[in-house]
Every structure is written in structure tokens, then in C-alpha cells.
Amino acid sequence: MTRPEDDLGGDLSKEADEELVLRYQRGDVAAFETLLDRHRAGVFRFLVRFVGERPRAEDLAQDCWMRVIAAAPRWQERARFKTWLYAVARNLAADEARRAVHRQVRPLDGPLDGASAWETVPDGRRSPEELADDALIRPVLEHAIAALPVEQREVFLLREYEGIPFAEIAEITGAPLPTVKSRMRYALEALRRSLEEANVSDRTRSPARSARP
Amino acid sequence: MTHERAQELILDLAYGELAPDDAREVARHIEECSECAAEWARIASTRRASSRLADPRDDHRRDAILSAARQAVARPPARRRSRAAMWTVGAGMAVAVIVGGVTLKLTSGRPVDRLASVAPKADVHERERDAAGLHVAADAAGDPARDPARDSASAAASGAASGAASDSGRFAAAPAPPRRPAAAPRQERSAQAPEGTGQASRSDQPSPARRAESGGSKAASREEVASAAPPPSGSVLADAQQVPGDSVDEARSGASEARGSARAAAASPGEAPDGAAEARSGAPAAAPVPPDSRAAAQAANDRALPARDRALRSRAPVTSERADASRAVVADVESLLASGALAESSRPLTCGADALEQRSWADGERIRKVRLTARDGTTVEGWYDREGRLRALHARSTVPEPIDLRRELDEHGALVAEERRGASARALPPWLPPRDPGQAPADGCRWR
What we know:
B: 19 helices
């Protein structure tokens, strides 16, 4: 018995996100799988850094994709899929952040004695010196990001790590473009201060990934 | 380019969002302006430090999400289904009304026929009014007697007046065909109205008259189940294995009474209504069964139940269908969770030396998911079906050694599938989601 996705064929990895959603609307589960593999890591990364708690981020990431699945039949190509996807993720994370303020419970699986809350994957390409630097910088950076106000944190995470342009972040957050840029400036300034206070900023030796000085 | 304009665009330059001409101009300004150069250096330094943050490890939920995506395209949206059903019902009713109207029209000039002899008086009266052309006049004048609510009230009253028991008796005793003529919808309403207080109660507990009426359709349902089952092997075990775990749930929440009772008959013998034994044993369900032989078959089946259950537990192979049923429970719960339909609660507990937090998600009063988290990061999740049975669990831990274990259980708690990455079973924590979600996970556990 052939499934609908078997009939559609094509190299899905080269398809645009929007085309993949349309294919999924027609019953092509492989198209959804491609979308999932393309964006799952990014969405999870954004969420885990936003809420700072891995199990919650896992739930939120799954919620996010479930909502995408539920809304997929009604999706229309008005905006980029990625913008829509991150808007869903951001709304879930913002709601969660609001609930967390009221909950006031220290998470059992939060940062414990210097251990990272995010269970990071070691990067085999880095030198021992760089890895040592990373070990110093990461906890400071994690705490500094977690300490950012929600509005600044979401803009910083979306722009710095997910590569979403400011204009699209404005769409995702519903804030005007100048406001988004202001939040980004404040976020960068706050992080710089935190790193300076921890005296770790001078230890950075590797080049930035996308800065163009 | 002015200093103010360059300051506005410096962030865009850092993130590569400027057009090449603008980028060159801003870069030129930065070379000449010490203030902008200092800001540029600060941004670049912070971004370099930010790049040291490593990616978090994978969240392992890919399969559950994909499973939900498959299910979503496998079944049409509920709204579309209900709309289609509404159209079907509407079309059927329209046809019934037209046929009924034509029949009434054809019989209106004749003396009161045999239908009138069983019809409540109000209907006879209305037919007589029809014959005299009074309906037309009443409609034109907006006669409140034509109001549907008043219509049903008067029908109920007249039904009561004419005697519910006698009406029911007539319907039950009459050797009528399973489907009554479409021309008699009013009779059905009049006869049934006094029997119950509401539609739901009538459908839940059918009266003898109603059972007799629906006997044909129930027999048809049984036949459908029997024909949908594998070739009759004569083994109740073979039939029972064809019913996935969730069919009980489906049957209980099923849309149609006939299908629901038939599936319930196949899935939960303890609750099987009369006649379910034939469906299970593969006997031709549509054939009339003498009461004595039916009782004998029921008794034989009841005696066989414990043995069947034992056989089911010991001999049931690990089938992908049964694992799929468990995974469907997980997907169902996760989808409820995603839609915000489950209420969350949290409770700390101690299990030996381990301090745990138990988070639960409940659908009304029934817990559908439990997550136990220890301070060392070990997490065990359990998913429960609508009957409160543990159907799947997932344990993850990095200490004392990495483990990622998934287990799917059938409705009896038997293991039907297991996927393990990493460590041996010894690495599993002593506390796991309990069979009864309201209980503590293990004997040594105490709520704090």
C-alpha cells in the first residue's frame, strides 16, 4: 500500500520551508520530517536558553511542534515559515516565563554546583585551551543570559543564535523595529558588563562566528 | 554619513543586515569616529564571547512529534468530519421528510389505515387535519401548533395520554421489519417520548421497546465486527488479540451507539451486552440465536475468560500493533498537553536518599502523565491511558552511567516493546512511574 508521501517524491532537503508546509498539508509526512529536522535543534536551543531549564524546554519544544501540526492545515503563505515557527515558540516561552515568575519554585534540574543546565554537546573542533576558556565563560554567559529581562533575552537569542533578522524579530515579538534594536543594544551591553564583572571577557581568543569588524 | 545615522546602523552592520553601499559608509565612519569605533569593539567582543555557548544536546522527542504528524494527516480534521456527517444526516432527513410527505399525501384521501391504528391520537388528528387541508391554513396563519417545541410537547402529552406501555408493547410485539417505513417518524417520537427523560438517557439505557427496534441494526453491527475480524479460528484468544488497547477507549467515547457497544463487546467482556458472545466467538451474528443457546454460549465464554486472560499475558507476541497502540496513548497525551487541556501539579517526595519532584498532568480527575525528576538530572516519565493504566515510560539519566530507555506496555501492563540506549537495567533508578498514578513510585518513597 502506498502512502501519500510516497507518491510525491522529490529532493525535500532543497525545498523551501514554505513549500514543505504546503506538501505536508497535502499529506506528505516526509516533508514535515524535513522541516522538523531542519528546525528542531534551533527551536530547542532557543527554548532551552530562554527558559534555562532543560525538561521544561523539552516540553515547550514538543508543544511548539504539536501546535504547528495542529495549525498546519490552516497555514497560509503570508510570512516565512521560520518566522511563524519561532513566533509559536516565543509565545510558549514567554507564557512559561510568566508562569515561572508566579511559581517561584527552584527547579530541581537547574544549574547545580557549576554543572550546565543545558547539557551541552562538546565541540570536538576546539583546542584544549579554547575548551578551558569555554568552561570558564559558559556558566557566566548562561547566568548573564538568564538574568536578562525577557524582552531583551528573546531578541538576543533570536538574533545572535538563530540568525533571525531584526525585521522578522519585530514580527515575531510584535514590537516595532527600533524597539527591537534598542533591546538588542541593551542586551549586548548587559552581557558585556556581566562578562567584565566575571573577568572572563579577556579570555576570549576564538573569532566571532558572524561579526564583521 | 552623520554620526547619529552611523550609530543607528552600527548594529545592522555587526549582524550583516546592511546593503553593501550602506555597510561601506558605516565602516568608513567607524574608522574616523572614536566613539563609534569603541562601540563597535564592544559589540564585537561580546559577540565573540557569546559564540562560546555550545549547543544543547538533542531532546529525544523527534519520534513522538513525527508520530503526531503522521496521525494528523492520517485522519481528517474533526471539523471536516463532523461537517460531512452533518450533511449526510441532513440529506437523509430531507429524503425522509420528502418520502414521508409524499406517502402522507397519497394516503390522505383514504380511510384511516393500519398505521393510524398504532399511531398516537395526536398524529391521527393531524392526519385528519391534513386531509382537510387545515395544515396549510395553519401554516399560513403561523399556527403555534406547528412550532417544533410545542409539537414535541404535544406529542409527548398525547403519547402519555394514549399509554406509553401499550405503545411500547405494540412495537415490541409487532413482527415488524428492522427498519420501519420512513413515513412514520412521528410515531417513533410519540411512542418514545414518555419512556425517558432525555435523549442521552434513552441511548445509554435502551428500553425494551427500543432494544427490539434496534435489534436489526445491532445484529448488523455484530456482523460488521465479525466480518472485520480475522477468519474465525474458533479461538477467543485470536479474536481478543485483534483488539488494540485503545479500542476500549474508542468504544467508550465512540460516536455511534451500535459501534460502541459492538467494540465494547469485543474488548471488555465483563461489560458486554447481550449477544456479544456471538461476536467474540465468530458465530454468524446476524442469525437468530435461541435464548437458551445464547445463555449457554455466554456462560461458556464467562468460564473461559480467566484462562483467556492468562493466555493473553503469557503467549501474546511482541507486536508492533500493540506497541503502536501504546505510542498512540503517548501521542494522545502529548497532544492534550500541547493543547493545554491537562492541568499540571507538582509534588516533592523522597525515595530513599533521592529527593524527587513529581510533576503530574491530569485530564479532569485522571492523571495522564507523570514525570519524576531527581537532583542528579535523572528523569523518568510515564504516560497513562484514559483508563488510568500505565502504557509507556521513558527513563533518561547521565549518572551513574548514560541511559535512555523507552518501554511500551499493553493494557495489562505487559511489556510489548523496549528501546534501550546506553546502560544496563542496573542503571535504572529504583523509582519508576507507578501503575496507579496516584500512588508513590516505590515502597520506600514518601511524599514531602
